[in-house]
Design a protein that fits this description.
The chain is of the alpha+beta class. It has 5 helices and 4 strands.
Length: 181
């Protein structure tokens, strides 16, 4: 091992010597810096794009009121085809009878009555609630640890299923709807 005193300390220079070697750096003031160079004003530039071929894609955007809206880039409408104003009605071939398949435009059948039935969903939920009660009772009386774990697992599964099905969204999705005459 070499003692520390034997280390070459010629590479280490005192601070004053380093300043003399490099020369004292001149510190510019901010006023001098701004006067010495002129800044160009930064501005955005509009570069128009070529109209693209419709790709048939959907995208989210906002309408003129700021409400969310879904836009569609229709492939069937050619880019060179004349575009109609938004408020213009769709032009279709007129029906000889003056009525479409559903009747005249804007007129609804006043005798039309629809009925929604959620009895099937209600029975399903009631069945799950009864099963939950039964599992809770069995769990309270059981003494075997293996059976207790199994019952707790079954109860947790029934509770998850009940939580998923016992809500308005599920009821609306699984309600059967039929037209009354």
């Amino acid at each position: 091992m070499m003692p520390i005193s034997g280390v070459n300390n010629g590479t280490v220079q005192p601070l004053t010597t380093a300043e003399k070697v490099l020369g004292a750096s001149k510190v510019q003031k901010p006023e001098e810096e701004t006067q010495s160079r002129q800044l160009k004003p930064v501005m955005d530039e509009y570069v128009p794009e070529e109209p693209r071929e419709p790709s048939g894609r959907y995208w989210m955007g906002r309408d003129e009121d700021g409400h969310p809206k879904i836009y569609f880039d229709d492939r069937s409408q050619a880019a060179d085809a004349p575009k109609q104003p938004e408020d213009a009605p769709e032009t279709e071939e007129p029906d000889p009878a003056g009525q479409g398949a559903k009747g005249p435009e804007g007129e609804k059948d006043k005798d039309e009555v629809w009925e929604g039935n959620s009895d099937k969903v209600d029975r399903e939920i009631e069945k799950l609630k009864k099963k939950q009660q039964e599992l809770e009772q069995r769990l309270g009386t059981e003494t075997d640890e293996a059976k207790i774990k199994n019952l707790e697992h079954q109860l947790a599964q029934v509770e998850r299923e009940l939580k998923q099905k016992d809500n308005d969204t599920y009821r609306r999705q699984h309600t059967t709807v039929r037209q009354l005459s």
